[in-house]
Amino acid sequence: MTDSDTAARQPVRLTISPRHRQAPPVALLDWIQRNPQYRPVVRQAGGGGGRPGFTDAVIIAVLAQGLLPGLFNLLQSWVDQQRTEASVRIQAGDTEVELQVSGRTDSARLLAQATEALRAAREPGTDAAD
Known about the structure:
Helix 3 packs antiparallel against helix 4. This protein has a 5-stranded antiparallel beta sheet. By secondary structure, the chain is of the alpha+beta class. It contains 4 helices and 5 strands, in the order αβαββαββα. It is globular, with a radius of gyration of 15 Å.
């Protein structure tokens, strides 16, 4: 097994916050959970408690890094259809990054940004500016 195989199995925690002016025809959670691969690992965050600023629109996912490409493609297709935006916070170990997704965001670029952040989290002592 290679290092990249091992990395693809490492869990990553995502917090997805869709932003929209009106209720979308299809909720992001329903959109993602149409794919059975994501149904057990992507859930709605509970309302009322938790971190400040979280609302019922927040979605939490803890999944293997290898599932990120498909999830980002689903997210991008939803954003395109709803003509809205979303914020994705990715946490791997002690490192957390936030990525903004709009109709102009390419899912491949989103994956590249996430992969770079995760790589930096796995390699202590490297500078993110390198």
